[in-house]
Write a structure and sequence with these properties.
By secondary structure, this protein is mainly α. About 55% of the residues lie in helices and about 0% in strands. The two termini are about 15 Å apart.
Length: about 70
């Protein structure tokens, strides 16, 4: 799965710590998501997408499934 969380987070000028606080998780959780070592729950994915002003599909959809890759 192609994860775009770090790219989008940087585009919105948020640190990992800031994003973590906004969505109610630890910085380590954000790090793990960005590295592809942890798949967030649907609720967490929605919260992250909202804070990054994008959709869940653009952040977490497999790039080979025909989903848009532009954030």
């Amino acid at each position: 799965m192609d994860r775009r969380v770090a790219e989008r987070r940087l585009a919105t000028s948020l640190t990992q710590l800031q994003l973590a606080a906004l969505v109610g998780v630890s910085r380590q959780t954000i790090i793990s998501i960005e590295r592809g070592k942890f798949s967030p729950s649907v609720l967490l994915a929605i919260k992250i997408a909202r804070e990054l002003n994008t959709s869940v599909e653009l952040l977490f959809a497999p790039s080979d499934q025909g989903f848009p890759t532009t954030l």
